[in-house]
Amino acid sequence: PPLNFGLVAPGIYRSGMPGRNSVAYLRRLGLRTLVRLVDGPAYPPAVEEWIAAAGVAVIDCRVGTNREPLVAMDGGALAEALAAAQRPERQPVLVHCLRGQRETGVLVGCMRQQQRWSLVATFDEYRRFAGSAASLLDLQTIELF
Fold first, then answer.
1. What GO terms are given for molecular function (predicted)?
2. Which residues are catalytic?
3. In which domain, by residue range, is 119 found?
């Protein structure tokens, strides 16, 4: 599986950028959609070939990154990505950023808020995937979404 892969909800997965070594794994999931949250390198050729052959839709939702002092994620793009991931006709869906840590963690955290998870459980899940990249601004974004 790709870096930081995990099941978020039935039909919704999270991870870092899919690489050539993860194509066979992703193929077995029967994905219909990839929701890409960040600018970054293009997909490797093997991933591009799988996307084309399987007819997987790619939705680009450049949410940006929270950074001190005054740079915040794009709330509109975050809401768009969240809606795209939750549409049954798009599932199974994989939501990813470059490493599956911060941007993906914020999106999943916002989904957990909609699912009425406690903030403690939501923040714990975010920190498990974000590791040392965890950001207080990301936690604030989740809480205020």
1. phosphatase activity
2. 97
3. 6-144
